[in-house]
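Exercise 3.2. Students should predict the tertiary structure of the chain below and write it as C-alpha cells, then compare their answer with the key that follows.

Predict this chain's 3D structure.
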Amino acid sequence: MAPLKAALFDFDGTIVDTTNLIYQSMRHATGEILGRELSRETLMQNVGQPLPKQMELLDPERATDLLESYRTFNDANHEKYIASFPEVETALQRLRSAGLGVAVVTSKRRHSVELALDSFPALRGLVDFFVTMEDTTEHKPRPEPLLKGLELLGGVHPENAAYVGDAPFDIMAARGAGVLAVGVSWGAFTEDSLRVTEPDHLSKNLNGVVDWLLGKV
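Answer key:
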C-alpha cells in the first residue's frame, strides 16, 4: 500500500463536538416552522450533508424557512451547546509531527466553521486547510470536497490519503474519492450504522485513529 501523506477530517462530530448544537437547532427549527416535534433519529439522519439539503429532505416546501430558523438559533446558541473533544489537539499534533498534511473537509458553511474556530482557536494552527460548503459545487457524499482538500495540500494522490468522519456520508465520500475511509463512533451516528458502510477502519477514540493512520505512514 502507498504510504500515507495526508489526513482529511470531517468537522462536526469528529474534531468538534457539535452534535447537541445541531440537534437543538434542528429541534427548534422544525418546532417553529413545522409546528411539530420530530424524533431525534429523523432530525439527525442526514447530518453530514449540506444544511440546505437536509432541510429539503425534511420539508421541500418549507426548506428556506427551516434553514433561516436553524441558522438564527444556531448562531445565537453556539457557545451554549458547542463542546470540545479533549484529545483532538494532541491527536492532530501527532499527525503533523509525523509530517502528514492535515485538512478539514466539511459540509458546513465557512461562517459556522469560523464561529467554532473562535471557540477553539488552537485548531487554526493544527489544520493546514479548511474546505467548506462554499468551496465546491458538489458536496458529500460526492467526492469533490475531499479531492479539493488533497489539491490544497499540494496535490496529494488519493492513494496516499485517508478521510476520517462520523457519518455514513463521510465513508461514501471517501470511497468515491479513492482514499482510505475511517469511521468514528463518538459523533452523531452509531457504530452499527457506520459498520454497514464497511469503512477501512472504525474507532471509538481519536488517538486510536491516529495510531492506525501512523501505521500507514
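Discussion points: The first strand starts at residue 6 and ends at 9. The chain has two domains: 6-17+83-214, 19-81.
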